[in-house]
Design goal:
52% of the residues lie in helices and 0% in strands. The protein is mostly helical and 101 residues long. It has one domain: Cytochrome c-like domain (Cytochrome Bc1 Complex, Chain D, domain 2, Orthogonal Bundle), CATH 1.10.760. The radius of gyration is 15 Å and the shape is globular.
């Protein structure tokens, strides 16, 4: 791969949440979140919806799970698999989403 193309791909990956906020599929891992976190309005579960929540709230919760500062659930194990930039990208993307009808 040419160096210029590689650098461009790297910079796109480092651009974080802003680039992913407009993406319909979201950043890495976003679609797997909807397996537990409902995206449709009116779906009532014990697991909170992420769509439209403030990005800072989502990111703080993920980091608390990583550090073991929140009650142990599967989220503690899941959160440990994400880097800070990935968490920020997920948080920004979910904050920009609205509940599906």
């Amino acid at each position: 791969m040419r160096r210029g193309r590689w650098i461009g791909l790297l910079l796109m990956g480092l651009s974080g949440g802003a680039a992913h906020a407009a993406s319909p599929d979201g950043p890495f891992g976003a679609m797997s979140c909807s397996g537990c976190h409902a995206t449709a309005r009116g779906v009532d579960t014990a697991i909170p919806r992420l769509n439209g929540r403030p990005a800072a709230e989502i990111a703080a919760a993920m980091r608390d799970f990583q550090k073991g500062e929140r009650a142990p659930t599967v989220m503690g194990r899941i959160a440990k698999g994400y880097t800070d930039p990935e968490i920020d990208a997920l948080a920004a993307w979910f904050a920009a989403q609205r509940d599906a009808p």
